[in-house]
Design brief:
disordered N terminus, alpha+beta, 22% helix, 40 strands, nine-stranded mixed sheet
């Protein structure tokens, strides 16, 4: 604290819907697109004391926003990213600037030069429909009708999105700053932040070249400098600045008479990692073709030392040569041009390519909104401002929450490896199940060696090596009805998936469930704490397991979890990921009454499931696993021979069985003991492929895929997990109101009439209108149906209702079916045999 500064402990947001007083002092670091968007939105939410500081001159600060060509393509596999982009377009379209509009709605075309890309474009067409963006598939002639410079002989087709276009980045920065200024926001250029004052784990102000500025909240919108600002409060910001080259050509004869800035749609030629935009009578061409050229944030020059701008590096012509040759091939008229201008700019890539948004848990009041493209900038500004002001962002941000990463993913070497890959693959055809190439193997369960011996085909999840199927099981599918899905869905599939699925239902299988996030919550306040966060009554005797939900303040499903009460003051929680730990930590009192421990890495889990599961486990244990002694949804401390195990009688695949947890050191022994005990019963190891189809047959939702904070429990078919007469829990008042209003949409179980297997995110149509989208899809080998779960409007959610799912531009009729499709009476899981 500087001398004379006032010590205040403001009421800061706790991310649970608690509003922050709008007179809190806010300092935003960075006056690029994101900083100005946050400032404008926060000011328009009524916040009165905001200062935006930037090390560079206002408003061409020298950051990435100062030279971005501003192409905005909305279509993205992530619904969240598409919505952030659509909002950015809407927002920029409404901004005013003396020099002209801030958004130019030229439309966009992505072209396909290979059959594989053409198929990919069909999927992207579907994604656009799923997320509410109009698009059309074009043949080559239609591509060149819209962009006459494109050689139609070089393309097989295109995807046209009429509402895409060009963001005028600097204009938008200035226009947003101007609107913010009118609301009283102060902007200070040439002011470098050098430190952040923290006291009692709360932000107090920023130190910098302009002196000390008192602050209750600091919002770091420093783009690729983010890691340096994060370091000031001890927070790791996992992003990597990478160089990216772009040229502007001399005038093209074909555009000699052009008076407008842009009449051609913006263009992507992803097969050659290129993009193009018209700039009156010239063209701009950008390339992601060369190998990634990362830069460490600390080596970026200051505005005073940079020859042009800190975010510009020397252009390296050799890295652009092949790209230019490829550009000419698609747009032959470019051959007559030279480069009027060439730039090598820097911007940020994260391990998963998505932005970083959220508040530090360790230093309250320190917020981050970084690794954001122009495309999503105003959207990110809006949700960040709303999150700060209301405690919830108004949109599900699970994919860009700063706490989505495991600790390893914030290490410099991981960020470097993954950041490079993200750059490299930015335009690649990426299958939704495609595992990372490196760094692998990163996290392995204690069973890894045995899994390798059984010929596991591993995919990667959150760093874990997870068997998808086992080649040792090859004979299992022989002679069975295991239809192969189409080429795309079959890329990470094998007939063994079907064999493992069916044998689990007939006999017994071991599933490695180690990657399931879990925590122990203990302490005298543990029960009360969990009661306040969860929708079910957890005040049950030790030994009971409860499936329950954590809601946010708006009654959206923040997570679905299992809570096993192991002792009076000790609970084991099955969670969905690191964000759940973050959520728990944020809500726990800091008086020591509750201790939350992430026990995932120190423990492991085998799901032992199938009709013979009891016989197997009983033959390896002296504890009783009978139905009378070990009922459904009960937990016990037992021994499997000498291995101490926490056993939970539940199953995500809908079979009799147990989740068996032990410490990592004894995991291999546990595997071997169960394997030996299971031999007489024909035990197999089964992978995630089988798991996926079995869970859908049982209608078990997967948080993050099937539902998230935008859905309430009733819409998601999880009303059974809400105890309505229980004392207040987070989200309860809003939930009551939402129940009263009735659901507007429903998560429905569909069976696809022609048995096409879909993968999730496909649009659903009714009478030719896009009405919803698929969340999960798989083949149910036990029920003989291709299953898809999808969000549909209530009026289409009735049993027997017919809709069409679009997959690779073909419509497939699907029927809303009664769920679960398999064992609706739960006889198998509750079996006493
Ligand atoms: C060549 C190129 C082409 C691109 N093309 C596109 C495109 O077509 N479409 C698209 O969507 N995106 C594009 N991008 C990406 C896009 O430009 C950026 O992701 C975006 O502008 C980032 O905005 P920002 O506000 O987060 O960061 P910035 O604009 O970099 O703003 C961060 C600000 O923080 C300030 N700052 C940093 N440290 C401090 C400190 N210690 N004290 C005070 N101030 C500080 C900086 O001076 C800077 O002004 C492109 C990027 C490049 C380089």
């Amino acid at each position: 604290m500087p001398p004379g500064a006032v010590q205040r402990v403001p009421h800061l947001p706790d991310q649970s819907g608690v509003a922050v007083p709008a007179n809190a002092k806010v300092v935003i670091v960075g006056a690029g697109l994101v900083g100005c968007a946050v400032a404008q939105h926060l000011a328009e939410l009524g916040w009165t004391d905001i200062t935006v500081v930037d090390q560079g001159p206002l408003f061409t600060t020298g950051g990435s926003s100062s030279h971005a060509p501003g192409l905005v393509f909305q279509t993205n596999p992530s619904q969240m990213m598409t919505r952030l982009a659509s909002y950015t377009i809407e927002h920029f379209s409404g901004l005013e600037h003396d020099e002209g509009p801030c958004f130019l709605p030229a439309g966009s075309i992505e072209v396909a030069a290979t059959p594989e890309r053409l198929e990919w474009l069909k999927l992207r067409h579907g994604l656009a429909s799923s997320w509410g963006v109009d698009s059309n598939l074009l043949n080559p002639q239609q591509v060149s009708e819209r962009i006459p410079l494109v050689d139609s002989a070089k393309v097989l087709g295109g995807l046209h999105v009429p509402s895409d276009g060009i963001a005028k980045a600097v204009r938008a920065v200035e226009a947003m700053a101007s609107r913010a200024s009118k609301q009283g926001v102060r902007f200070r250029g040439d002011t470098t932040v050098t430190g952040i004052a923290v006291d009692e784990a709360r932000v107090r102000g920023v130190e910098g070249s302009g002196g000390f500025i008192e602050a209750d909240l600091v919002v770091s919108c420093a783009g690729m400098w983010g890691p340096l600002i994060g370091r000031m409060v001890g927070m790791r910001i996992p992003l990597l600045p990478v160089q990216h080259q772009y040229v502007r050509t001399s005038a093209l004869n074909e555009l000699a008479d052009e008076s407008q800035e842009i009449t051609h749609p913006i263009l992507r030629h992803q097969d050659s990692a290129l993009y193009f935009r018209q700039l009156q009578n010239c063209y701009g061409v950008g390339s992601y073709q060369h190998s990634p050229l990362p830069v460490q944030p600390e080596t970026i020059l200051s505005p005073a030392d940079a020859p042009l701008m800190p975010s510009l590096m020397p252009f390296t012509e050799d890295d652009f040569k092949q790209a230019w040759a490829d550009a000419i091939e698609l747009v032959p008229a470019l051959a007559e041009t030279s480069w009027e201008d060439s730039l090598n700019g820097l911007f940020s890539f994260t391990p998963d390519g998505l932005p970083l948004i959220g508040e530090s848990r360790a230093v309250r009041g320190f917020w981050v909104a970084e690794a954001v493209w122009v495309t999503h900038s105003a959207g990110v500004g809006k949700v960040t401002a709303q999150w700060i002001a209301d405690g919830t962002p108004g949109m599900d941000l699970r994919e860009c929450d700063i706490y989505r990463f495991e600790p390893f993913a914030t290490s410099p070497s991981y960020v470097d490896a993954r950041g490079r890959t993200q750059y490299d693959e930015v335009y690649d055809v990426i299958h939704p199940m495609q595992p990372l190439a490196e760094p692998r193997p990163l996290r392995v369960s204690p069973f890894y060696r045995r899994q390798q011996e059984l010929g596991a085909s591993f995919l990667e999840f959150s760093g874990w090596e997870r068997p998808q199927w086992y080649y040792a099981n090859e004979p299992l599918s022989e002679g069975r009805d295991v239809p192969a899905p189409g080429e795309w869905a079959a890329r990470f599939w094998s007939p063994m998936v079907g064999g493992e699925h069916l044998v689990t239902r007939e006999r017994v299988a071991m599933f490695d469930m180690t990657s399931l996030k879990r925590a122990e919550v203990r302490g005298r306040g543990a029960l009360g704490f969990l009661q306040r966060l969860c929708t079910s009554d957890l005040d049950r005797r030790p030994g009971y397991v409860t499936y329950t939900l954590m809601l946010d303040a708006h009654a959206g499903i923040r997570s679905d979890i299992t809570v096993a009460r192991l002792a009076h003051d000790r609970f084991q929680l099955g969670l969905n990921g690191p964000r759940d730990i973050d959520w728990l930590e944020r809500h726990a009192a800091d008086d020591g009454s509750v201790v939350i421990t992430d026990i995932t890495s120190g423990t492991c889990c085998i799901g032992l499931w199938g009709p013979d599961a009891r016989k197997v486990v009983q033959s390896a244990s002296q504890d009783s696993f009978s139905h009378e002694d070990f009922g459904f949804f009960r937990a016990k401390d037992v021994f499997i021979e000498e291995v101490p195990v926490v056993a939970l009688r539940l199953s995500y695949v809908g079979e009799l069985g147990w989740e068996l947890y032990t410490s990592a050191d004894l995991g291999l022994r546990l595997w071997d003991l169960l394997w030996r005990a299971g031999r007489p019963f024909g035990i197999i190891a089964a992978g995630r492929g089988a798991f996926a189809g079995m869970r859908l047959e049982k209608g078990y939702r997967s948080w993050g895929l099937d539902m998230w904070t935008e859905h309430d429990p009733y819409e998601a078919g999880l009303g059974f997990a809400v105890k309505e007469d229980k004392a207040e829990f987070l989200g309860a008042p809003v939930l009551r109101a939402r129940k009263e209003e009735g659901p507007r949409r429903k998560l429905c179980c569909l069976t696809i009439d022609d048995k096409t297997v879909v993968m999730g995110k496909e649009p659903v149509f009714s009478n030719g209108e896009a009405v919803g989208f698929v969340t999960s899809g798989a083949y149910g080998y036990s029920v003989g149906h291709s299953i898809a779960y999808a969000w549909l409007p209530v009026e289409l959610a009735g049993l027997g209702s017919k809709v069409d799912i679009e997959y690779f531009a073909q419509r497939h009729t699907a029927t809303v079916s009664e769920e679960p499709l398999f064992d609706p009476e739960m006889k198998r899981m509750r079996s006493a045999e």
